[in-house]
Structures are given as structure tokens and as C-alpha cells.
Amino acid sequence: MIPTNQCATKSQAFLHWALTPLGLFTIIYGLNIIAWGGMLFLLICNAAPAMCHPSCDAETSSRRIWIEIDSQILNALFCIPGFGLAPWRIRDLYQWCRWRLGGSSMMGLNRLAQIHDNWFVLDPRHLSTTVADSVDLVKEYEYSSPTPTPLWKMDVVVWGNMLNTVFQVCLAVCMWAMNRFGRPGWTTGLFVCLACLVAGVAGVVVGLEKRRCRSFKGVLVQSVSDSGSVDKV
Predict the structure, then answer these.
(1) DSSP type of residue 219
(2) Which helix (H) or strand (E) holds 15?
(3) Pairwise CA distance, residues 217 & 76, whole Å
(4) What is the model's pTM?
């Protein structure tokens, strides 16, 4: 059970974040996704029989028209992160290519570690000479950081984010280049599922690593405070 003071602190932090421009935009964006996604789900389940005129599957029925409107709105909402974050995702892919394919492997990996330092912990052995130019710095890094993050998790996050943009481009092309009469029904479902899947996997990896880093920092602070109290005694 979460302590009352901790719950109050988290609530105040959330309220402070929600009142910022980014927080307000994120909340409005999320509510739109939930509202329009819920409406699309109800329409697909035939939850509004009054819209099935002359039949539920008729192209001129209100149900089919609103399914198309709903799908276009959701596609536009998905394009905001898919296209808006594309420059940063391309930057990460470039650094990944330097690391995995190019000659500057350490520089590429170190740059990715700096970009994603809120969840990725680099093994001290992979620190470039420009970052770790002394043994003392490496020892300090080892003490103040949790166990290194497996490198394959960086692969998953970089490619998951990049593929999300790629699949969103495919979805947008299908939605905007073809009308609802000539568009194959499987295209929308396929690209939506693929885009959500790769983004979800990357998000889960980042979330789990962030939790691991936060738990380590809590243990580190506790150990430092305990050692300080022992020294005083």
C-alpha cells in the first residue's frame, strides 16, 4: 500500500506537470485517442443499430460513413508522434548505424547512451576515450550506476521507434491515397497493429529500465545515508 504522504507528493507532481503546456497537450491528446478509439470500437461492434440504414454494411449507411471519419481522425492523431518525432528517431538510427555498421562504433554507442541516459546504463568498458580518460572516472561510474543495460535493448528501442514511423507512413498513404470504397480493409488494421506493437515493445523496454534505475538510486541513497550515520557514531 502506498503511504499517504508519498501519494500526495505524486499527486502534486502530476498536477504540476498537467498544468504545463506539454502536460496539457499530452492529456488532451490522450483523451482524444480514448474517445475516438472507443467510438470506433462501438461502431465496429454495431453498438448503434439506428445507424444501420439501409443495412449495417451498406456503403451509404451512417455507420460506414462514421467509421471512415473516425478512422481518418485517429490516423491524423497517430501521425502527430509518428511524424513529429521522426527527426529524432532518424538521428538515433544514424547513431545506431555508426555503432553497429560504421567505423565509429564506440562514438555511436556513447552518443546513444547520452541521448537515452534516463534509462540506458552504458557498460564502463564501452566508454570512449573522450569520456573515460581515467581509471578513477570509470570506478566512480561503476559505483554510481546500476548494472549496465544489455545492448540489445538499445537495438529494440531504436528500431521500435523507427519502425513505428515507417508503419505510420504506410498507414497514412493508404488512408489518404485511397478512398473508402477502393481501400482494402486489411490495410488499416495491419498497419495500426504493427505501429502500435513496435512502439509498445519499445515503450515497455524503456519503462522497465527506468524503474530499475530509479530503484537503484533509492538503494544508493539509502546506503550512503547509512554509511554517513555510521561515520558519525
Answers:
(1) H
(2) helix 4-18
(3) 39
(4) 0.81
